[in-house]
Amino acid sequence: MLTRSPNSSLRLGILLSGRGSNFLAIADSIRAGRLPGVEIAVVISNVAEAPALKAAQGLGLPAAVCVSKGRPRAEHDVDMIACLQSHHVDLVCLAGYMRLLSPNFIAAFRNRILNIHPSLLPAFPGLEAQEQAFAYGVKIAGCTVHFVDEELDHGPIVVQRAIAILDSDTPESLNRRILAEEHLAYTEAIRLVSSREYEFRGRRYLKRDS
Ligand code: GAR
Fold this sequence. Notes:
The chain has 210 residues and is α/β, with parallel strands linked by helices. The chain has helices spanning 21-31, 51-58, 73-86, 103-108, 129-136, 171-195; strands at 10-16, 38-45, 63-65, 91-94, 113-117, 140-147, 157-164, 198-201, 204-207. The longest helix is centred in the last third of the chain and has 25 residues, at 171-195. The chain is globular. The model has no long low-confidence stretch (mean pLDDT 96). The structure holds glycinamide ribonucleotide.
């Protein structure tokens, strides 16, 4: 659980592998004052060529590369954990980080890792969730921000946003429309977590009784 003191800011560690539009949406929410008391402590990519790295540097944010290709997961994650800890990260936000985390990583940040997934979980876990939803023919799609546990796309849900799939949709248009919801959902989820007003009741993440 988050244990920061009420007056200290919540330091995010953003993990990504590519484009980084969710990271940029979070950065924009912070800049616009939609996430008071939240700051980005570091952006880490496991892919050296990730376009998001340049964007992070352009915003004056600490950015690091920790290449994962060809390295055993557990060994790579030791370096990721060290980098996050050296930046005093409170909450890890996976934003298009396309690599599974080792059990050690999850234990090091237990209940302090969020992930965004482009489907209404538990439907369509795994890769290309939007394409899975389109091909299946569901009428409602969306995205989920959830805590990360040892199972893929499985931990307690913080926020979901749903959209209707239109007859006129293509996989590309659906992808675009879900992504727009993701950008709203991630800010909403970080706001809930940073409020410290929510607690786990089993799998459910609920507002604490006042
Ligand atoms: C997003 O659609 C995110 O939900 C997805 O990767 C994309 C990253 O985009 N993540 C997963 O599918 C994880 N299972 P971005 O780099 O522009 O934020």
